[in-house]
Amino acid sequence: MQYFTNPMPKLTHLLIYPIKSLDGIAVDHAKILPGGALEHDREFCIVDRANKIVNGKRTAAIHQIRSTFDLKARIVTLAIQNEQPVSFHLDHGRRGIEGWLSDYFGFSVTLKQDLTTGFPDDSASPGPTLISTATLERAASWFSDITVEEMRSRLRTNLELGDVAAFWEERLYSTDETPVRFQIGEVELQGINPCQRCIVPTRDARSGEAYPQFQKTFMLQRRAEFPAWADETRFTHYYRMAINTRIAPTEAGKILRIGDILSCGSS
């Protein structure tokens, strides 16, 4: 691997989402699972009686659930506006969580757990998604009343790089779909493709309220500001942002840490 000297990308934010589609938490390190995901990221998902995942794509009401996690104690606290928060043990209090969620949604749901890969949106590329802080800042600037923190919450990306320009991460996929190998700290990752966004970013991350013309504005600005040095052949449309990754089983057990430097091979 060769280290970049100008710029030298650094891991500045590391976010995981223990229950798919609920709130994320910031951590200072995360272990790589055998399936290539981050430990505890999308460890659980909510499913209905037909075994279909209940998420923001299907159910906008999920945005109004507030969740906080104490992963060391294995506690989740759930709340909705103007109601008393309720805490449950993630392992021993599963039925209580399911009952609370079922009452909220108005239909029966259960929790599923996967300790190997979790429940990623892209099962072919289950590694952590990656973006730069500068890209989030640029995307937020396209909307008069969306902050950087709100854009971060809408895009729900795992890894965030600092000390680089907007769209720097476009270097981490190839024109011919060959994985681009790079390393963050001790962990080798493979950049696969620019992440296709769904309906979730069009909604307020806390209320679920749709932002007028969000997708249209996003695509127009994304195209207008697409970096001249990047390759557009992987963009069948411009509603894409952040990078999907894979991590080989050989990396299982290694740790990503805040402050780790990103390095990349010369090829």
UniProtKB/TrEMBL annotation:
GO molecular function: catalytic activity; molybdenum ion binding; pyridoxal phosphate binding
Domain MOSC: from-to ranges: 83-265
Entry-linked Pfam families: MOSC, MOSC_N
InterPro entries: MoCF_Sase_C, MOCOS_middle
Domain of life: Bacteria
Protein name, UniProt field: MOSC domain-containing protein
Source species: Leptolyngbya boryana NIES-2135
